[in-house]
Design brief:
two-stranded antiparallel sheet, about 70% helix, single chain
Length: about 170
């Protein structure tokens, strides 16, 4: 006898395939959700790590800025100290200069000429005095001209005065 299958095998096959499809689809969704969850966690941890690195860099930048301010302050102090040292060195260097100038003033003044006032302003030395005769004043000017410490002596005013003897 012939075997006739009256069962709806096509519907059962289709139902079986649909069941497999749903199972595979559900499995793929679970795997995709798991991968999405892992990816999300990874990105969250990367973002958190980057935030930590950024905050570390910010704190290091703040420390460096503070050190830069300290270095600038030290440079300003150094420059001020250097300026003070220059002033002190200038004063130390000029100390023997004034002694030499006074020594040369004494050597250049001829007999009969007297200084009444000596004034130093910057690089210029002014003095006023009294002389017996014009020739002695001329001798003073020649002595000043020949001195190595005085340059370009200039006589600005000569006054004659008389003494009344009563």
């Amino acid at each position: 006898m012939a075997k006739i299958n009256l069962r709806p095998w096509r519907e059962e096959l289709r139902a079986e395939q649909q069941k497999q499809f749903v199972t595979i689809l559900f499995g793929v969704l679970i795997i995709a959700a798991g991968l999405g969850f892992l990816w999300f966690n990874h990105m969250t941890s990367e973002i958190e790590y980057q935030k930590q690195r950024n905050s570390f860099i910010q704190s290091e930048i703040a420390l460096l800025e503070q050190q830069i301010k300290e270095i600038d302050e030290l440079r300003r102090r150094r420059e001020a100290l250097i300026e003070r040292m220059k002033v002190i060195q200038d004063l130390q260097g000029r100390r023997p200069l004034i002694v030499r100038i006074f020594d040369d003033l004494v050597k250049t003044v001829p007999e009969g000429v007297f200084y009444e006032q000596v004034q130093l302003t910057g690089e210029q030395l002014r003095f006023s005095g009294v002389g017996d005769t014009n020739s002695r004043i001329s001798s003073l000017m020649r002595n000043l001209e020949s001195s190595e410490w005085f340059m370009d002596p200039n006589l600005t005013e000569v006054k004659a005065w008389s003494v009344n003897s009563d």
